[in-house]
Amino acid sequence: MDSMMTRRGFLAAGASCAALAAIGTSTGCSSSQTEPLSSDASVTYTKATLCAGCANKCGIEAWVRGGKLWRFMGAEGHPHSGGYMCGRGQGLPSLTTSEDRVTEPMKADGKGGFAKVSWDDALADIASHITGAGSKVALFQDGRATDAWYAKRFMASVGSPNYYDDSALTNANIDAAYKALLGTTPVFDTANAEYIVLLDASGDETVRPVEVKEFQKVRENGGHVMAVDPRNAGADMLADEWVAVRPGYELAFLLGIMGDIVKKGDFDASFVEQYGEGFEEFHAAMLQYSPEWAAEKCGVSLDTIYSAERGLVKAAPHCHVDVRPGALLGCGYATSLETVRCAVLLNAMLGAVNQTGGMFLAKVPAVDESVFESAPFTKVSASGDGIAKAGELGNASCQDALGAAAKGAADVALFVECDPAADWADSAKVEENLSGIGFKVVIDSVLTETAQKADYVLPAATYLEVESVVAPVAAEWSVAEKRNQAVAPAGEARAVYQIFTDLAKACGKGDDFAFGLDDVNNAFCKAYGITLDGLNDTACCAIPGASVLAGDAPAIGTDSGKIPFASDAFEKAGLARVPQYADPTVAPNDHMPRLITGAQSMQTRTYTADADKIAALAKDSGAERAWLNPQTATNFGIADGDEAELSTSTGKIRVKVRVTSLINPEAVYVPPHYGIESKEMAQAAGYGASVWDIVPRASDAATGAGMVCEVPVEIRKVGA
Amino acid sequence: MARYGMVIDTTKCIGCGACRLACQNQNDLLSSMPFVKFSEVETGVYPTASLQVVPSQCMHCEDAPCQAVCPTGATYTNEDGIVCIDHGRCIGCKYCMAACPYQARVVDERTGAVDKCRFCTVSALNGTEMSTCVTACPAGVRVFGDLDDPDSEVSKVLAATHATPLLGDATKSKIFYVR
């Protein structure tokens, strides 16, 4: 029955990325076995494509049997998967076959329901609203999207600068720090490190599959991983020790170490002189911080802080502080940006840049829009300011934009595979905002809570049903990747890029979209020096010349080509030129703990919650429970399994409690992907509570980050 | 003939669920049919507590309570020591589910028959591409093979780790745990 190419055969197949053959190597993913889209029950084929379970977009192979999705494995050549998938990735495919799918365009019937409508009629009506709104159109898209190039072009074509992704609620602080300090994305050489400080991994429990064995290798090699995190979860389970830092005081932990390293002269003077700038100013500022001071602030013992410092210094440069993405460092605290700055600069002062076991500065070729200004493309650009102001170091906040849109700045809003009603802070305010926007279109594969409030819902094909725009992936050898179609779209569902093409034509902007996806991808491939045929076959190909080897001079992408230990950009953003301690906004204690959140290993926002096998695993695991330390629980008379009411200035929720010693007493953890009310998401509806009901809307002035963990929580046992 | 068994190293498990979900895809199982289940064991006290995730499934016991109580002979042990179910003979009485101390059995809502881990990963031993609890695990938690073959990887790991069954000798389980 099977005539599949084995996934072990990827090296030979990867050579179909012809440009790679010229350089004699390939890190392409496994090759597809090409009998695509057959419905013959006797035929089994594989398709090399990309997962959609999180922003990592791991390379995967989808097996299709008799025209139906069957099983899945990670692609060995993808830098994030290493031949494996996580549980979320294994469970997500059931979204494609879900009975909850929206498979035809729907129009609100004015009575709280929807009626089927043809694509032509839907596009014509939506287009009339968009063209009538002029530039007062806003578009919101999930940051994991592989169609962003089309969405942005569509907005520019219709004359609106109002494109917003949801990075404010994911990794805005990390993105901003990397850009300002390194001008590129760092990747960590986990497997070869001798010492790692793993920082705030519970902010997103996602562990790239390839990382699991890399962390194991650290231990096998005699190295050490110290997890510093208010909650012990996710990658922390791969560490040698867990250090239960006070939530929001990670900054003090790092500054204490940095201060002592400066005082003792244990930094890499040669590196900072050659590749840094402003180090003298930084040096002077760091002297005010000490491990003793840090211990008082962050609640970590002096011995442990010294242990981390000694571990890093002794191992340098084969060590690093690993900045983990997600709801703590990415968008959690008022001090998250400064914390990430310290992590990056600590790695730099140890000389752990482009060194074995350190932090590598990835080479990712920049491809600008000039590639798309000649036939068959037209030059499109939208002028003017957006409806939300961008911070000096980051993008404008999607939350700010939604609020502005509701106040009249936008007459039309499009929500593309994102669900503000279920996933953004302050659910009540989001609902109010959505009500204030005159015309709303949701493009998605299920009837999300936001879709329930829309005028139109356009059915999106899922990640296993579509091709995507080619995109780069930062790695020690950066690759280009592309999603490939494994099965035909359900019903009348269309790929998002196709929907924007069709909508542009309906808006009279067809000339700006007089090209096919292959034209776009060929342009990207040409810029990267690879071939589209190769990506169609293997889903990922190494970009020639985009490798970084240990000992290479770091390609620092800042304007000066140096790492700014004292930063003009930070100063311009209203921050100190050098790292500076500030208390977080909320001072938690075990009677009024700080709310912390972070995606669980099985979930990504509410997007994954309706996949039936993931939903079943979540329910079997009691994953909806809030975490409380035993000491904190005792203060409130709460026992494991009790129901508690959590109250903040924004709202109240009721949740079951897991009493666990895996969390700092000053924190209460609530998962961010439950409490879904849309009954059309049958697998997820009614399970757990929404953390977003109790998180106030906020925006970091410099980065737009949502500061979703700056929330004190009052706790009461239900029934007490 | 072989005597197939498995070692599960819980010190490597991070509870990602890939084993359970890959198994469900590979074997075309409904979401209500997890052949793999997880128990969480918290050890230590704050601030040095840690979590151990213990995956469990059919232990393919040599003294299988499920087989002993099956009134139709639907549950049997094949020549390689794999506890199997003849779904055509299963009448859905669920005696086996009550007898299994590991709660490893589930009902297939499509047929009414009881089902459980089939040690399907045996097919991967000869190089067949499989997406199973063994082959899909990113942490290398499981090692599978012939317990009677001293040169098999599973025998070597078992000897090196002194892994033990969850319930000691109670059912003569062929799944051994490193904890």
How many DSSP H or I helices of chain A? 23
Order of neighbouring strands in the sheet with most strands of chain B: 8-1-9
Radius of gyration of chain B from CA coordinates: 16 Å
Beta-strand segment tally of chain A: 27
Provide a descriptive summary of the structure in words.
- The complex is a heterodimer of chains A (720) and B (179).
- With 720 residues, chain A is an alpha/beta fold.
- Chain A has four domains: 7-100 and 464-494 and 516-547, Phosphorylase Kinase, domain 1 (2-Layer Sandwich); 118-156 and 374-459, Rossmann fold; 172-363, Dimethylsulfoxide Reductase, domain 2, CATH 3.40.228.10; 594-717, Barwin-like endoglucanases, CATH 2.40.40.
- Chain A contains 23 helices and 27 strands.
- Chain A has a seven-stranded mixed beta sheet with strand order 5-4-17-16-15-6-7, with helices on both faces. In chain A, strands 22-26-23-25-24-27 form a six-stranded mixed beta sheet.
- In chain A, helix 7 (209-220) links the parallel strand 9 (195-199) and strand 10 (224-228).
- Chain A is globular.
- Chain B is α+β, with helices and mostly antiparallel strands and 179 residues long.
- Chain B has one domain (4-178): 2-Layer Sandwich (Alpha-Beta Plaits), CATH 3.30.70.
- Chain B has four helices and nine strands, in the order E-H-E-E-H-E-E-H-E-E-E-H-E.
- The two termini of chain B are 30 Å apart.
- The model of chain B has no long low-confidence stretch (mean pLDDT 97).
- Chains A and B meet through strand 3, helix 3, helix 7, strand 11 and helix 22 of A and helix 1, strand 2 and strand 3 of B.
- Chain A: Belongs to the prokaryotic molybdopterin-containing oxidoreductase family.
- Chain A: Keywords: 4Fe-4S, Iron, Iron-sulfur, Metal-binding, Molybdenum, Oxidoreductase, Signal.
- Chain A: It comes from Slackia isoflavoniconvertens.
- Chain A: Its cofactor is Mo-bis(molybdopterin guanine dinucleotide).
- Chain A: This is Molybdopterin oxidoreductase.
